């Protein structure tokens, strides 16, 4: 046959005829209507990307993959036909969306190993050697079961590994087995750390292994209303996290009064102005990837009884004293005290004067 059949299964692409002199990849690109969009800003939404690409032609399907907190999101865009996809590729590659210039290529070329693993079970892998790539990561975890995705997170400015990655399994049992059996094992030149990854579900960041996360109310009730201190662990020397970076990451959850950072011990204490701010920080940052580690966040030490008593005294001051009516009442009280003092002094003076006159006459 002068032509060969090439089956393109990625993101809804269909079977097509191809020139026998072309490579399978070129054959797929010659008929494909699916584009891979990478280097996306996290603010980019599926609706926004659809609107941008629909300026070229009708978008049949748009799928944004942005479930991991620590990895860059990417997207698949499918058009009705190949010519429209070609036009979109030429027009959109390098276009600036928010703070980044997006990369657009054929899904069959750059995104062949990409798949929608939203419903799979994702684990976080930290302390990766700089030379470990996605293929080696996948091969290492394949002994635990079927790996649907393996990704090493790289710095977008220089392409170098940031020291952590993610692995997905269709089976929760296999993902749990991978966490239990591979934690602390040697991969490359380092002992890796494994844990459940953190993923975005309906806008919230939750453990990717299906563990039920604590609600904000549950976190808040784990400590007294007077506790405003957060313990942050897993900040080992290998993470490279400094006090300013820790402060910056946690300042978005409230007013930080104090940061006590112990880099040699790998943990820090962060004191907020309010209990609710501290609870929000624990709720939002627990199990988050941070500088190649997964943060451990919990409540710090409870304040002592003297500090609680002082706060209770402050809270128990009558509200009337801090209102303008209270100020007037307080002013009148002091005015009466002053008048009474002056009257006492006058009476005392008159008594002394009369006593002196009596003695002189006698």
Task: Throw out a few tags for this protein.
single chain; 362 residues; alpha+beta; four-stranded antiparallel beta sheet; 34% helix; elongated; disordered N terminus
Task: Please characterize this protein's 3D structure.
It is a single chain. With 362 residues, this protein is an alpha+beta fold. Helix content is 34%, strand content 26%. The chain is built from eleven helices and 22 strands. It has helices at residues 24-31, 46-53, 82-92, 107-110, 134-141, 172-182, 216-220, 243-250, 275-285, 305-315, 324-361, and strands at 4-6, 16-18, 34-38, 59-65, 74-79, 96-97, 100-101, 103-106, 121-126, 149-154, 161-169, 186-187, 190-191, 193-196, 198-201, 204-207, 229-233, 256-262, 267-272, 289-290, 293-294, 296-299. The protein has a four-stranded antiparallel sheet. Strands 10-11-9-14 form a four-stranded antiparallel sheet, covered by helices on one side. A hairpin with an 8-residue loop joins strand 4 (59-65) and strand 5. The protein is elongated and about 130 Å long. Mean pLDDT is 76; it is low at 1-23, 109-113, 200-213 and 317-321.
Total strands? 22
- Sketch the major β-sheet: 4 strands, antiparallel
- Helical coverage, percent range: 25-40%
- How confident is the prediction overall: mean pLDDT? 76
Strand content: 25-35%
Look at the helices and sheets and give the structural class. alpha+beta
* Backbone shape: elongated
Tell me the radius of gyration: 33 Å
Helix run count: 11
* Spatial arrangement of strands, main beta sheet: 4-5-3-8
Distance N to C terminus? 149 Å
Give the low-confidence spans: 1-23, 109-113, 200-213, 317-321
């Amino acid at each position: 046959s002068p032509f060969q059949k090439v089956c393109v299964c990625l993101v809804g692409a269909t079977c097509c005829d191809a020139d026998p002199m072309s490579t399978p990849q070129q054959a797929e690109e010659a008929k494909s209507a699916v584009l891979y969009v990478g280097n996306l800003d996290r603010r980019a939404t599926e609706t926004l990307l659809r609107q941008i690409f629909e300026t070229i032609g009708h978008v049949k399907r748009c799928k944004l993959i942005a479930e991991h907190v620590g990895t860059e999101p990417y997207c698949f865009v499918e058009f009705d036909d190949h010519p429209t996809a070609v036009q979109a590729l030429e027009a959109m590659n390098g276009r600036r969306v928010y703070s980044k210039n997006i990369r657009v290529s054929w899904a069959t070329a750059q995104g062949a190993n990409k798949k929608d693993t939203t419903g799979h079970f994702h684990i976080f892998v930290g302390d990766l050697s700089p030379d470990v790539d996605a293929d080696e990561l996948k091969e290492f975890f394949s002994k635990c079961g079927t790996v649907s995705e393996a990704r090493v997170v790289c710095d977008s400015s220089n392409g170098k590994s940031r020291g952590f990655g993610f692995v997905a399994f269709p089976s929760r049992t296999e993902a749990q087995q991978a966490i239990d059996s591979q934690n602390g094992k040697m991969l490359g030149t380092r002992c890796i750390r494994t844990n459940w990854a953190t993923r975005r579900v309906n806008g919230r960041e939750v453990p990717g292994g299906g563990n039920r996360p604590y609600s904000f109310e549950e976190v808040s009730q784990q400590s007294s209303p007077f506790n405003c201190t957060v313990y942050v662990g897993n900040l080992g020397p290998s993470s490279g996290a400094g006090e300013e970076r820790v402060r910056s990451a946690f300042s978005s959850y409230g007013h930080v009064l104090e940061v006590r950072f112990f880099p040699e011990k790998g943990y820090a204490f962060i004191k907020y102005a309010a209990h609710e701010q501290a609870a929000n920080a624990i709720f939002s940052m627990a199990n988050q990837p941070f500088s190649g580690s997964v943060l451990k966040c919990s409540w710090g030490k409870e304040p002592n009884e003297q500090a609680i008593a002082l706060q209770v005294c402050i809270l128990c001051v009558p509200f009337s004293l801090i209102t303008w009516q209270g100020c007037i009442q307080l002013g009148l009280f002091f005015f009466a005290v002053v008048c009474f003092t002056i009257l006492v002094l006058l009476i005392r003076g008159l008594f002394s004067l009369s006593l002196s006159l009596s003695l002189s006459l006698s």
